[in-house]
Amino acid sequence: RELVRRLSDRDAGKLVRGVLQMIRARPKEARRYTGELLAQEVDAERLLERIKEMPGEEKASAEAWYLRGALREAAGRMTAAAEAYDKALAADDSFISPHLANVELQIRIGRFEKAMELLKRIPEKDTAAVRFARCRVLAGLDRLEEATGELEQLLNDQPRNVDYRLLKARIQRAKGEYR
């Protein structure tokens, strides 16, 4: 941890560039890696400064805006994170990661109507990640029957998925079926 905290400005810049390159190829890993860095007390603001110092095109890329959003979200700056995700989508609307990140952010802060609105804009609606996010939003909106139906389909494909099973238990509890 101490080594990570003492990154030089040059190394922080290299780190940001490495994460930016990873984002398109392996978005889940890039987001997890960013979270792990922040958990190790890497200064999110310092990494954001490295992005600001990048050349214009690289700095304005969808990946850079997505990374800004993840860093801002991790720093608890939710409004700024949502704005960064929106800018990532303005740069490239087909980039699925900022779509999902923004939906997840809205779920986390309890803005389920906004999350549902954002879900409707996602170009690839039939992925498991999008369908699961939809189940979570439906549950948050207290549309439990719809959430259950969609969740059952996901569970048919992946019956051992812990996240799916936990959501199912929460929905059953909300419906009074599980105590």
Overview of the molecule:
Helices cover 76% and strands 0% of the residues. It contains twelve helices and no strands. Helix 2 (9-25) packs across helix 4 (44-52). The N and C termini lie far apart (42 Å). Mean pLDDT is 81; it is low at 1-5.
Largest sheet: none
Q: Specify the overall morphology.
A: elongated
Order of helices and strands: HHHHHHHHHHHH
Mean pLDDT: 81
Structural class: mainly alpha
CA gyration radius, whole angstroms = 18 Å
Give the helix level as a range of percent: over 70%
Strand content: under 5%
Number of strands: 0
Question: How many angstroms separate the termini?
Answer: 42 Å
Low-confidence stretches: 1-5
Count of helical segments?
12
